[in-house]
Amino acid sequence: MGPLVPFIISNEFNLIIALIAGIGFGFVLEQAGFSSTKKLVGLFYGYDFTVLKVFFTAGVTAMIGVLLLAQWGLLDLSLIYINPTFLWSALLGGAIMGVGFIIGGFCPGTSICAASIGKLDGLAFVFGGGLGVILFAEGYPLVKNIYLSEAWGGVLMNEMLGMSKIMFAVLLTAVAFIAFYLTGLVENRVNGVQTAVNERKRVFYASAIGFAFLLLAVIAFFPDSKNRMETRINKELKQKDFILASVPADQLASEIVNNYYQINIVDVRDSASFRVYHLPFAINIPYEKMADRQWGKILDQKHKVNYFYADDKQVAAKAYLLAGYLGNAENYILNGSAVNFRKLFSNLTPPGAEASKSEIDTYNFRQKAATDMKMLVDALKNSSEPVIAKTTKIKGGC
Amino acid sequence: MKPQKFMNPYLAGFLVGLVLLGTIYVTGRGLGASGAVKSVVLSSVVKIAPGHSANTPFIKTYSEEHPDGPLKDWLVFEVIGVIIGAFFSGVISNRVGIKLERGPNITNRTRIIAAIIGGILFGFGAQLGRGCTSGAALSGMAVMSFGGLITMVAIFGSGYAFAWFFRKLWLK
C-alpha cells in the first residue's frame, strides 16, 4: 500500500525517486512549451491558454488517479501530504506571485526549465527568485503575523464546500472541460483565426472526456476495498461455514503463563475499553484499524500465534476472518469475552468442602495462573508495555 | 534545423498528471520547485554569513529543521531532475541555445530587469504562500487541498488583475 516511502523505499533512495520524478516533470514541461515566456503569459492576454490546459489536465489526472488508488486500497490517503491552509498568507502570497508572473513571465518551475535550455531571461528569473527568498528571510519579522495567522491545518476543498470527495472531483473535472472549451473560443477570437478541429481530434477529445467521467463513476458507485472486505466477511459470518479456531480461557491463560513469548494477544475492541481492562500482554488493534499497515508485522508473520478477543463474539469472529485475509499468521480467538476472562482470573473464591476434585483442580489452576500472569506482567513491564507506534509524517510542499 | 512543434497541451497535461500521481504514490508528497531555490539559497547564506544567519530567526529555524542541507533535500534532487529533463527535451526538439525572449517593444535590458523583479516577487510570494505554482497549486489540486487551491486562484487572479498594467512588456 502506498505511499511506499519510508516503509518500502528508504529515505535515501527517495532522493533518487526525486531525481527521476524531476526528469519526467522537466521533460514534459519543456515539451509543452513552458520554457517559452511568451507562451506562458499568453494566458493573461488571451492568445495562448496552454498553461491552463496543461495545468488543469495534470491536476485533474492526478486527482482522479489518487482517488482511484485509494479506492483500490493501494494508497493510504491519511498518510499523504496535504498543504496546510494559512488563509491570509496563501491569498497575499498568491497575489504577489501573480504580479511576479506577469512582470517576470515565468513561475519558478518554468523558469528553471527555460534556464536549462539556455534562456537568459529564465536564468535572470531564477536569480531573482533567490533574492526574493533572502528578502523574505530578512523581512520575516515584518510579515510573521500574516504568515502565521488563520492556520486551519490540512483542510480539504470538499470539506470546505461540505460535499464528498467524489462530488468535488466531478465538479472540478466538469469545470476543467468547460474551461478548455471556452478558452478555445477566446483564443480564436484574440488571434483572429478559426481553428478547425478535425474528425480524429474530435473523437479523441470526446473519448478522453468520456473516460474521465467513467473513472469518476467507478469511484463513485463501486464499493472501495474496505467495504468489499467488510461485505465478504459479513457474508461468511452469515453462512457460518467457516472454521473458527477458538480456545477456552483456561487454555489461553496457560499459553500466556508458559509461552508468552510465542504469542500475540490482540484486543480488537476500541482503545477506551482497552484502557479499562485488557488481558495480560494484550496489544490493542481496534477492528476498524486492523488493515493499517503498521499492524502488518503482527497479522502477517509466521513466528508467533495470534489470539484475538473482544467483548462481542461477533466482533472477535470478524477480526479472526479479517486477519485471515490480511496475513498468513496462525490465528485463534478466545472463547468468551474479556470481561469473562477477568472474572475467571481475579478474586477467586475457594471451592467449598463438598466440591468435586475437578472443581478443586480448576480452582488451583486458575489461582496459580492468575498469580503467574501477574508476576510475569510485573517482571516484563518494561519490555511488554504497548509500544506506541510512531506515524511518520510526510513532509512536502515547496 | 528548425525547432520542433510543442506537444499537444492536453497530452502534456496528462503526462504531468501521471508523473505527479506516481510521485504521490511512491513518496506521499507532490512536486515542487521554489523549495529547492530556498534550500540552496538559505544554506548558502548560512555558509557565507553564519553569524548573521544565527541572528535571523527565519534562517535559523530553517537550518535547524533542515540540518542536512541541500544535498539531502528532496526538492533539490527533483529540481536537478527538472534541469536534466528540460535540457534533454530541448536537445531532442532543437530548442537549446543562448536566447532571450521578450515582448516586441522592450529592450533586452528591460526584459532582464523585469525577469529579475518578477523572480524576486515570485520568490517572496512563494515563501509567504508556502509554495509556488507547482508545490501549492498543482500538487494541492491533486490532493484537493484548500490552501493549495486558494493559492492557485490568488496567483492567476492577480495575474489577470495586473495584466493590463504590464501589457507594454508583452504586447505590440
Features of the shown structure:
heterodimer, A: alpha/beta, 2 domains, five-stranded parallel beta sheet, 7 strands, 7% strand, B: 172 residues, 9 helices
Polypeptide structure, described:
The complex is a heterodimer of chains A (398) and B (172). Chain A is an alpha/beta fold and 398 residues long. Chain A has two domains: 11-225, no CATH class; 237-384, Oxidized Rhodanese, domain 1, CATH 3.40.250. Chain A has 17 helices and seven strands. Chain A has helices spanning 11-32, 37-45, 50-71, 87-104, 108-116, 120-148, 157-161, 165-191, 199-221, 225-239, 249-259, 271-276, 296-299, 313-326, 338-344, 357-379, 381-384, and strands at residues 85-86, 151-153, 246-248, 263-267, 282-284, 305-309, 330-335. In chain A, strand 6, helix 14 (313-326) and strand 7 form a beta-alpha-beta unit. Chain B has 172 residues and is an all-alpha fold. Chain B is built from nine helices and no strands. In chain B, helix 7 (133-142) packs across helix 8.
